[in-house]
Every structure is written in structure tokens, then in C-alpha cells.
Amino acid sequence: MAPDANAQLIELLHRFAGKRLLVIGDVMLDRYVSGKVDRINPEAPVPILLAESERTSAGGAGNTAKNASALGAETTLVAVTGADASADDLKAAGEREGYRSVLIEDPGRRTTEKRRYLIHSQQMLRVDEEDTGAIGSAVEARVIEAIEAEVSRVDAILVSDYAKGVITKGVAAAIMRAKEAHGFLVLADIKPPSIGHFIGATAISPNLQEAHEYLGLNRLHADCSREELASRLHERFKVDVFLTLSEDGVFVWSRETPGRHVPQAHRVEVADTSGCGDTAAVVLILAKLCGASDTEAAELANAAGAVIASKVGATALTLQELIEALTHDSNLGTEA
Questions:
Q1: Which tens digits make up the pLDDT trace of 69-85?
Q2: How distant, in Å, are the alpha carbons of 55, 67, 72, 308, 321 from that of 318?
Q3: Max alpha carbon distance in the chain (Å)?
Q4: Which residues are tagged catalytic?
Q5: pTM, two decimal places
Q6: 3-327: CATH number
């Protein structure tokens, strides 16, 4: 893409500031324990990690919220936690990471926590604690009440579903009712079981595996091109489709752009793909709020994904990092 086009993309980024985004979904605590190994456990043939430092950050829908905040959006997160220490850590993370948290405590479930043990930034073990059953009716009612309290003061909703139980049929229906009542954008970044609840949303951003599952297809045996997948999703679910293709970019099928491949122009050394999908979804919806074309939104999502993939852990993308990625790469472009 020509330098003038890059300048136009950067101008879009500057419009992100002040956009009001409501993130709804499954929040989790990411805990990183770093240390060194200099001996083997005499009890079993495994290394002993001598812990030297520990840090926490919000993951899942929390990662989505912190990325939106880091890019300048006024962000509110609605999610469910347990009544435990991990929930307290998530509240602190929200304050530290710059977004407002509406965390509904459910004493009957654990806060989802993923503990990663690292040596020199290399992950050696991950331990998960979680409850993945659907939230109960009483908690669901509180989530819906929280959504209804927030929707009058937001520009868009981003649904961040990790199949941990928050995005029930009732919660999804409340989101779609709010969309109809207020006319704002809804981007559904959702796991396959939830897709039927979001027919008529503004957009979806599945990866290839999710796209196949949305359509009830086995990826190993289905012979579907990217174009066919995207067009079928658009037709069946009445949404604009941003099919994310990792290092191959994004394939767009929408009312505005019925079939266009936007290749990944940013080549980086991949360190960790954690959080790439979250970040891409944030950039897509903020770009659309700022008047970007679907192609421009996909170009920005590509740049964001490349930056995040070059970093270790589900870390936030800053506006300056994204601007630098666009400034230093003049080869952005599209293919029909």
C-alpha cells in the first residue's frame, strides 16, 4: 500500500480515543511464575523451578478489555468471577490496566485462572483452574441487569466468549435486544456453540477451525475454500465476516466487501500467538466505529496481530506500537 494509504490508517488509529466499548464475556486470571532450574527433583525425574518472580494480568475477556483500553477506548468489562483471591487480583488488574470492571461474583464457582511456569520466558508448564458450566439463572439475571445498565452509554459491544459459561442464550438475547434498541455495533468473537445466538450481529471474527465448526464441518475432511467458508457464514448468520488466517491475513465477506483477501504484510518472528484473536477483534470493531472500510479494518487487524505475535504472553497492544508497525511497513495491500 502507498505511504498515503498508511497515513490514512494511522489517522484512523488516532480516532480510537474516546470510543466507548462494552466487553462482555469470560474473564480469566493469567498468572506467570518465572524462575530458574538448576537441579532435578529427587522425588521424580522432573526439574525443580526455583520461583523468582510472579506477575498477574487479565486474560480472556480481560485481555480484550485491556487491549481496548491501551488503544484509547473507554472500556467497561462485564464478566463473572468466583468469590476468591483470584477475583480480587482481577479487580486490581482492571484498575492497573485502565478499564472499568463490573465483575459479578458467583460463590458457587471458581474464578478461571491459568498459571504458567516459565524459565527465561520459555513456558514449561501450565495449570488451569476453572468451572465451565453455564452460569445459573440468578447470576445470569445479574449479568443481564449489568448489561442493561451499561448499554445506553456505549458505542459498541464486543462479545468475548471462551465457552466458560457466561455467554448463555439469555445473555446473548439481552445483547441482541440492546443492539436493536440502540443501533450500536456488536462484534461476536465467540466459540462455535454460541454462534446460533448471534444471528444478525454486526460481525464475527472466527479463525479457520471455528469457521468450519460454525457450519458443522470437519476441517480435516471438508473441501471448502476460504471464500466459500466466508460467504456461507455471511449468508447463514446474516453477519459481516472477518475470517482470520494467522500469517495469511484476513478474508472479508460483508455487505460492503463481498469477497476479498487482505494478506498479512507484516512479517515477524513469532514468539507467542496468545491473545492475537482478542486483539484483532478489538481493532476490527474500533476501526469500524471510526469509519474504516472493511478492508482498512482488516489491514489494521493484520498489523495488530503481527505485533502481538512477536510478544510473549497475552500482552496489551499500544497505539504507538501499532503506529510504528504501519510506519515501518509500506507493503500493505489487498488481493481480490
A1: 999 999 999 999 999 99
A2: 19, 8, 9, 10, 5
A3: 64
A4: 278
A5: 0.92
A6: 3.40.1190.20
